[in-house]
């Protein structure tokens, strides 16, 4: 499969690139700052510089790709448009003959109604205040995808951490995952690479957590 990874220089993106290379995929690593890309253990991807805030910047690198994984992120908690801008560029590239499957990283924190009362209070008073602007743009990102006619998958992760992949991660389709506290980046990356182009994931929100 021809795969592009947008945000390839980030901690999750690097893992997706390396696992995809190990699986035999032809990988294009797309990064705003390519100098931040490491040496990969399982091969060398094609490297492209692009910025999702610049309209049209993804069209050329995504042309001819079978799938694209977006692991875009932000280092602060201020208002951002990186997620929604990225989604618009991915959809535009797909409509112009680009990838058939779009996979993007989201957050399990967008849905909290299923939590026990005490956890809902903590989420509203602490988590929502800290990550309100990020969650707003993640919601805008999901709306952009929902309004498109593309095959997309939103991978909603809980709090991410470093570490090895879970032997048997818990997965929920289109509904919250009770007790989803953390997931390693390796768990998320492994699930994504293992489900590239999988029709059962199309136009669905998938929440993943470690055991």
Structural overview:
The strands form two sheets. The chain has an eight-stranded mixed beta sheet with strand order 3-2-1-4-5-6-10-8, sandwiched between helices. The chain has a two-stranded parallel ribbon with strand order 7-9. Mean pLDDT is 90; it is low at 112-126. Helices cover 33% and strands 23% of the residues. The chain has helices at residues 11-22, 59-62, 82-95, 117-146, 185-194; strands at residues 2-6, 26-31, 46-49, 67-70, 101-107, 151-157, 159-161, 170-173, 182-184, 204-209. With 211 residues, the protein is of the alpha/beta class. β1 (2-6), α1 (11-22) and β2 (26-31) form a beta-alpha-beta unit. The protein has five helices and ten strands; from the N terminus they run βαββαβαβαββββαβ. The radius of gyration is 16 Å and the shape is globular.
Percent helix among the residues? Answer: 25-40%
Q: Strand-and-helix sequence, N→C? A: EHEEHEHEHEEEEHE
Read across the widest sheet, the strand sequence of neighbours is 3-2-1-4-5-6-10-8
Mean pLDDT: 90
Assign an overall shape.
globular
Instruction: Catalogue the unreliable spans.
Output: 112-126
Largest sheet: 8 strands, mixed
Given the structure, what is the number of helices? 5
> Over the alpha carbons, how many angstroms does the gyration radius reach?
16 Å
Share of β-strand residues:
15-25%
- Total beta-strand segments: 10
- Helix/strand class: alpha/beta
């Amino acid at each position: 499969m021809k795969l592009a990874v947008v945000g390839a220089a980030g901690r999750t993106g690097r893992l997706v690139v390396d696992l995809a290379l190990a699986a035999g995929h032809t990988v294009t690593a797309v990064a705003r700052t390519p100098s931040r890309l490491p040496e990969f253990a399982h091969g060398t991807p094609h490297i492209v510089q692009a910025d999702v805030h610049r309209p049209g910047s993804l069209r050329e690198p995504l042309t001819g790709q079978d799938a694209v994984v977006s692991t875009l992120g932000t280092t602060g908690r201020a208002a951002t448009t990186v997620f929604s801008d990225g989604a618009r560029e991915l959809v535009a590239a797909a409509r112009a003959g680009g990838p058939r499957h779009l996979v993007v990283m989201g957050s399990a924190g967008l849905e909290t109604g299923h939590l026990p009362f005490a956890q809902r209070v903590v989420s509203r008073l602490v988590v929502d205040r800290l990550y309100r602007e990020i969650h707003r743009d993640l919601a805008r990102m999901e709306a952009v995808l929902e309004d498109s006619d593309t095959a997309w998958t939103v991978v909603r992760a809980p709090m991410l951490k470093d570490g090895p992949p879970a032997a048997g991660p818990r997965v929920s389709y289109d509904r919250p995952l009770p007790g989803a506290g953390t997931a390693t980046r390796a768990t998320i990356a492994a699930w994504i690479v293992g489900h590239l182009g999988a029709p059962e994931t199309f136009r669905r929100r998938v929440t993943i957590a470690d055991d």
